[in-house]
Amino acid sequence: MLPLRFKLFLLNKYVCLTIALAGLAHLVLWWFIIIEARRGLETLILHYTTEFGVDLLGPWSASLSLPVIGFIFLICNIALAFFLYRRYPVLSYLLLVAAFLVQVMLSVAAYFIVSLNS
């Protein structure tokens, strides 16, 4: 049974939509990384610059840091938004939108890691 305060937080359509979109973007992030991990490559290109080319190689497990960081950021922002929702609803909306945008940026980074190693 969820507390009433949490139910009111989740009943807000903007909160619910933003959390759902951020969760979907996070699933896409895991999907990109799992595709790369299945290929069985031992060493991956993790960073590329136009000036120097490949400047960071690492094991495939290093690419798992993107979804882990994204998950921590997502959970922290949702928790902060929940605690601030009653007094500062606009700030909680901004935190949730920031969580969504971070998930999208990390998904794009994972896409580039996958495409660099193809």
Uncertain stretches: none
The helix content is: 55-70%
How far apart are the termini?
A: 47 Å
- Shape, please? elongated
Number of helices: 4
Mean pLDDT: 87
Output the helix-strand order: HHEEHH
Strand segment count: 2
Q: Report the radius of gyration as a whole number of Å.
A: 17 Å
Q: Which sheet architecture does the biggest sheet show?
A: 2 strands, antiparallel
Written description of the protein model:
The chain is mainly alpha-helical and 118 residues long. It has a domain at 14-36 and 60-118. 69% of the residues lie in helices and 12% in strands. The protein contains 4 helices and 2 strands, in the order ααββαα. It has helices at residues 4-11, 13-38, 65-84, 89-116, and strands spanning 43-49, 53-59. Strands 1-2 form a two-stranded antiparallel sheet. A hairpin with a 3-residue loop joins strand 1 and strand 2 (53-59). The protein starts with a helix and ends with a helix.
Summary, kept brief:
The chain contains 4 helices and 2 strands, in the order ααββαα. With 118 residues, it is mainly alpha-helical. It has a domain at 14-36 and 60-118.
Topology overview:
Layout: H1 4-11, H2 13-38, E1 43-49, E2 53-59, H3 65-84, H4 89-116
Helix pairs in contact: 2-3, 2-4, 3-4
Key phrases:
4 helices, 118 residues, mainly alpha, two-stranded antiparallel sheet
